[in-house]
Amino acid sequence: MARVDLEKVTKVYPGGVTAVDAIDLHIANREFVVLVGPSGCGKSTTLRMIAGLEDITGGVIRIGERVVNDVAPKDRDVAMVFQNYALYPHMSVYKNMAFGLKLRGVPRAKIRELVTQAARTLDIEHLLERKPRQLSGGQKQRVAVGRAIVREPAAFLFDEPLSNLDAKLRVTTRAELKRLHRRLMTTTVYVTHDQEEAMTLGDRIVVMNDGVILQADAPLATYNDPANRFVAGFIGMPPMNFFDGALKMLDGEMVFEEGKLQTPQNHGRAGDSRAGRGAREAGGEDPPIAIGELTLPGNGFRLVVPPFYQERLEGSIGGHVVLGIRPEHLHVEPANAASSPAPIGVKVNVIEPLGNDMDVYASTTLHDHVVARVEAHAGLQIDARVTLYADVRKIHFFAPGATGMNLCQASELSHAPA
Ligand SMILES: Nc1ncnc2c1ncn2[C@@H]1O[C@H](COP(=O)(O)OP(=O)(O)OP(=O)(O)O)[C@@H](O)[C@H]1O
Ligand SMILES: [Mg+2]
Asked: Is residue 418 included in any domain, yes or no?
């Protein structure tokens, strides 16, 4: 077992694609780290560089105390499990699992002992004489894991090992992998693009995008306390709702006012007929105000910012910010009075029943896509105008842009309520 350290590791593929851009990642001995992010963000490249299957363009990779930049894959003491399992089709399960040990000259009796033990751990003893084509997807996946564990490597590297399994088997197999890790306590780096898999498996999850790490943290920290808007939108399903707007002081209170972003499609159209129809009930329409790319047409919703955020947001008053609210933190009923729920008027467009809950897709005056996950018996109708209440203890504020930083990371807000 060993720790794995990446220092300023970069990969530029021939042709000039920078797949991984100077990442720093320190994985503790025995830790289970999950790399997660959208397709093409550099997860597999990172894993393959650790395995030695891909040369690195810059930086240092250490496994244990040893720099492995120039060490051949077979000498790195890591075992990789691939998405397609990569089993030898002409060999039995037993031989597939024994092959690597045989190459390394492990005595026959020892091989038998290791393979039998791994097969028992993975509940595949009865399959040892079969060929891969006689196995189901889930069974092949176990054999691939078995082949990795018999080697007793310093680290396991998994690249989307569950993505060929059906949804139900994926859930049971990931629970088995977690149990296996508890038992063997082997340092593990696991790649997936599935944020739920990442949340459930990892001691720590590393959210990547465009070849860089956007947050490396405990799973719940990435959910409760995302470092930036990208992480906030990637972790959690359905994704967090984002509202562009601005912070203002109104009658001594700090208020977030919903605005509209100028995009090439709607340039010059903010405050047009759509906005006119939805004029705020009280106070009428204010004249539009422009802040950079943002327009405040005056008919968006307003939300009073709770006191415990205000200090952190003072520097953003008068500027463009992004309000983030998770679907599960929007309610049809106001929560208890102590949490000062914030009302947001919406029109219901689509309702997706999920059994116990339902996802309500709605629009505000200025934003077409708002999702709320509410209890199934909420009695909502399509096309109805309703009020959703945000639980203000759980809202977030970000700087503008796709990776805008969290302006009030809760870990730094000691006086925020739990
Ligand atoms: N052999 C290669 N040659 C050139 N570019 C490559 C090569 N392999 C990957 N890339 C590029 O490097 C980037 C990162 O690819 P990588 O396979 O690491 O992504 P990933 O995060 O694993 O994505 P996915 O979730 O789709 O598997 C992508 O832009 C990809 O097109
Ligand atoms: Mg990949």
From this structure: no
